[in-house]
């Protein structure tokens, strides 16, 4: 395996599927030879959201870099901010809403899998998230 060093500014942002004003960067992934994990960076603009969805067999570990936003985790809703870390267990319905006035950014680590399944629960964001 070869070591990899990248600056996030060199990695293109892509729109997040079914989201509004939300973007993803795949910072380190299988294309870099990562054998076990993949590192992603998300940015959600003010008023943006990622709708409710489930990953049946993939957990997420996330760390908030900047901003403040709402996360729905199953039946509960939490507000997270810079410096917070969270675990989204596999099979947990989750969504994101940036109701703040600045961009929100977070890192997300997932296990490397041959298939990454996303089940979208609704076209709209339920409740406030």
What does this structure look like?
It is globular and about 40 Å long. Strands 1, 2, 3, 4, 5, 6, 7, 8, 9 and 10 form a 10-stranded antiparallel beta sheet that branches. The chain is mainly beta and 129 residues long. 0% of the residues lie in helices and 51% in strands. A hairpin with an 8-residue loop joins strand 2 and strand 3. The mean pLDDT is 93. The chain has a single domain, classed as Sandwich (Jelly Rolls). It has strands at residues 14-15, 20-28, 37-54, 60-66, 68-73, 76-81, 85-88, 94-97, 104-111, 119-120.
Q: Report the C-alpha radius of gyration, rounded.
A: 14 Å
| CATH fold node name | Jelly Rolls
Largest sheet: 10 strands, antiparallel
State the CATH class: Mainly Beta
Class per helix and strand makeup: mainly beta
- What is the percent of helical residues? under 10%
SSE order, one letter for each helix or strand: EEEEEEEEEE
Number of strands: 10
**Whole-number tally of structural domains:** 1
In one word, what is the shape?
Answer: globular
Terminus-to-terminus distance: 41 Å
CATH architecture group name: Sandwich
